């Protein structure tokens, strides 16, 4: 007689042990370790200067108190004197015109060049590289070169126009009516390569099948551009305009190299006004006020940009 033994019951699989408090604490510390350098960098190089600039706008600063750090508070006197100055309103208006004109010109020409170079043709890469040169040259150098080109008496542009019989005595930088337009045109020339490169990269990411489908539907070139290219390029256009606004609204070196804010304050912007108040007239409190206005304008623009992106993402 044989005896059979019943098989042993299978062991239930062990559940993964929940991470202990020490392990979770180490993970949080590791996460903060990666974030901490960026936070420290932002606080030191952005947070502290911003707070210091705001505080300075409520203090009476002279060259002596600037170095001793014992400037007394004067309430809103700096703000009142800046806002009551007629030059501030003029500089604010010039800043808006300069920023809007530069962005419009840079974007339109940059987009046209990006669409042009999106088609392959011989020496296309060489031409794209040459167009990048204005962007690679330091802005001060570009300003000095263009100041020579636009000189009323000895400038190359007036000499060329005179050769063509179109009049060669235009006061590009010395006339209050022409100076701001000339500065805008020079800034457009500098910013075209940046717009072209970013928009060209966006065009490369658009699927070719969309263009083929539009061609099969009989869409014209303009209809294809309006219904396919622009909608697909919208995120890239937003980035280009935001970065362009941030870099244009605070431009200082180009205007100083071309006109130094003149003639008759015709090219005075918030950036040049900040420089003039702080480092020419040594009124650091007024300079801080204008600087805070610039920061506020950029912050408002950034908030609208973030809200627009959040709305589109829903």
Characterise the protein shown here.
The chain is mainly alpha-helical and 314 residues long. The protein has one domain (77-313): MetI-like (MetI-like fold). It has helices spanning 21-56, 63-68, 77-84, 86-117, 124-131, 133-136, 139-149, 156-163, 179-204, 208-216, 221-248, 253-258, 270-280, 284-313. It is flat and about 70 Å long.
Overall body shape: flat
Q: Describe the oligomeric state of these chains in a short phrase.
A: single chain
Structural class by SSE content: mainly alpha
The radius of gyration is: 29 Å
CATH topology: MetI-like fold
Helix content: over 70%
Q: What is the CATH superfamily label? A: MetI-like
List keywords for this structure.
314 residues, membrane, cell membrane
List the helices and strands and how they pair.
Layout: H1 21-56, H2 63-68, H3 77-84, H4 86-117, H5 124-131, H6 133-136, H7 139-149, H8 156-163, H9 179-204, H10 208-216, H11 221-248, H12 253-258, H13 270-280, H14 284-313
